[in-house]
Amino acid sequence: MTAPPALQLESVRLGRFGPFTLHADFGERLAIYDPGETVPLFWDFLAGLRQPSRGSQTEAGGQMHYIDADGTLYPRLSLAENFSFYAGLRGFAKAEVARVFTLLGLQDHAQKHPQALLPAQRHLAAVGIGLLGDPDILIANALFAKLGIMQMQALADTLQPVLSGKLLCFRATRAYELHFAQRFYLLFPHALIGPWPVTAVRDFAEKPADAPSVEQLLSLLRKREN
Questions:
Q1: Does the global pTM surpass 0.70?
Q2: 209: burial class by Cβ within 10 Å (0-12, 13-18, 19+)?
Q3: Which residue has the higher pLDDT, 70 or 24?
Q4: Where do the domains of the chain lie, and which CATH numbers do they carry?
């Protein structure tokens, strides 16, 4: 018997946005290409802050956590204080903070403030906040945003064993970030289009700074299909 998708959105409409359908499996890395964050309500919906006006959302068991990799950490708090704050909000014991610190190798940075960390370390710490409670599904906004190639690769390498068996769905802000997914969708102002395998963009998503519009990327994909 085929296992159910980790996340299944069927004919979902959010006001004037949609309807759209999305299926994602456990163990998958799925990107939503959205360079300008043109549909905030889409991300509000995935974060659980908005209910659909139509359609259904099904999660195959376990927890789903949402993080904003560029805005989760409070700058006036140390890393340890940030984790303790979020753990307290969610009712987790101190042992859960220690587990995630060890899992991600953040012990040496516990007393540092976010601005004292490298960008990739800040993003890793934000992911750590999302991993409190060991969720099966992680939705990440701007996971690789503003990172260079080496930083993106280091973050991806660290996360690969940590996220094994989990669904990671992340917002990609540049075409190069799609390399760290297996499939991707394009987010338009009124529609979600896809998915495509990441191999479809391998040869025209080579420069980290490139952030073509969704219209430009769709045009390139359709030319290739023809």
A1: yes
A2: exposed
A3: 24
A4: 1-62+136-226 (3.40.50.300), 72-135 (no CATH)
